Amino acid sequence: MVSTPFRLQHANTTSLCLDLTLPGHTPLYSCMSPKTFKACLKVLRRCHLYYFSQLITPTGTHLVSWTAYRTAYIALLDDKRGRSLPHKWYLDIQATTTIPNSHDRLYDRYVCSPTAGPVISLVPGITTNQKNRHWLVTLDGNAAPLFGKQLTVQPKKDTCIIVHWTSDCLSSLGDVIRLRPCPGCDAHVPFPAANKYTSVEPRCTFTISLLRSLILPTLNERIRLNTTEVISPYSWADLRTKVVSYYARLSIPPDFSSSLLTVNGDTASPPPLCGSSGLPFPVVLPPGSHYRYYTDGSLINLGSPVVSMGWSWVQIIHDAGYLNSVATYAHGTIRNWPSSTRAETAAIYAALSVTPEDSVVSLYTDSQAAIDGLCSCASSTYTNSRFYYKTVNFELWASIECCIRKKRLSVLPVKVKGHDGNYWNDFADSLANSAHQSDDAFLLPEALISSSHNVRLIYDDIICESNPRHLFKAYYQATYMRDLLSLKRFQFTFCLTDQDDYVVDWDLTWFTLNYSPSHDASFQAHHASRHYTFKFKLFLDDLPLLEKLKITRPDLYIDLLTCRSCCLRNEDLMHLILCFK
């Protein structure tokens, strides 16, 4: 793999120590060569292979043979490819982890404790599709079983909507699992009845992960109008070990670093700001009350390459005796990734972090981008990690979403027109502007606003909050352009006296000629004209003119040589253009 200054850092204080004696703790990339892992990453993801324990026999001493693996799992995939020979990734793992000529016996460092796995074989829910729906079993946040019949399947999102059915299997472990329709619970999500999905209107539905679920064997697959009970031939005692071990294996976060780095003070969820020094409490209202905040952000240039971002919130309580209904306020600053939207978002996070639980919050802001971000936090698609990382300031937005969910807040964003005479909005604006030079301005710590994810991307000790794919591409392009501009011919060297002063780096040249940043919305037509002009100049600069050949190959070209067309002047770029012959 290419070495870069980017690194991954664990945000939680409790480091996950690598333990090779327990199944599920060894990521596959540590058992493969970097080149093969990079080449086969898409194949491994399509096969849902993440940990080495998924390829170990129940005894823990041997690697599963390719024939057994292909028969047991690959044949169940809908997009299976008819292949009898082992894949490259399997051969690489086999060469790394097994003793030669030992019938796939593992090296001692890869041997795991034997698992007394159940005889029952359960197929992962990822193998299902919309035309082949099944009963599924998974675990909730309390490690209790959840049962349901698939209603819709979204393979690309690794999710499906199930009709929730309940069971008393926890109180009767030895009895067969009996499922009954759920009349409604906290996990219920309204789902519109549609004949193309089911002929029976579901009472309770919710979304689960296909990867974290298993197909539950049942005596009857379909739900009919008169179906009141569905029976599985197995008891929860029969299935519990298999389900719990499978779910726990997938719940182990992969270790992306050779040495686990931790940051003191970080937690799995953002801690509240109200206990931080310098940030006041809001005026606490009775439980379930309606809190109203005006928020604003400010971005200014401090007369140097450094910019400053300020934020503020103002709590409004009408008819309570406060001057102009302003109960309290706070302001502060935030660093890195400067933009006015980031400052506005920081104000929203600061206000929600000090708001009591189970409250209704109205946020008045003049930033439409902040309102759109809040709407994304409330949508179900935003919980998809791919959407997280495509969003600018995704760590900050993830902390806001986590705060809303943990505190059970009902947030109502309200758009107000900026600089339109609204006293409270103008007051919040002045507070945000004053935060740049204020001694009592509260600085939002990076560790606080980026602790929603277990692992975060770091560059030059700065937490990255831009699309990682675009960030890597921009770094790669900037590195090439830096190397290109460091060549001597771009450093105003007009008199070249040494042949080493003029070196054509064709990799850099063709990269620049082929590079076209048309994907960037800020790259307008006049920018494109200048860019193409630079490309043309660069190409002309690499032409093998006679005057340049005299410098690079003095053994072949003498100073007396002139233009071979007119034989009158030296052949430089200007003469090449103006030569009458």
UniProtKB/TrEMBL annotation:
Xref: SUPFAM superfamilies: Ribonuclease H-like
Source species, domain of life: Eukaryota
InterPro entries: RNaseH-like_sf, RNaseH_domain, RNaseH_sf
Chain ranges of the RNase H type-1 domain: 287-437
TM region(s), chain numbering: none
GO molecular function: nucleic acid binding; RNA-DNA hybrid ribonuclease activity
Record-given protein name: Ribonuclease H-like domain-containing protein
Matches recorded under Gene3D superfamilies: Ribonuclease H-like superfamily/Ribonuclease H (3.30.420.10)
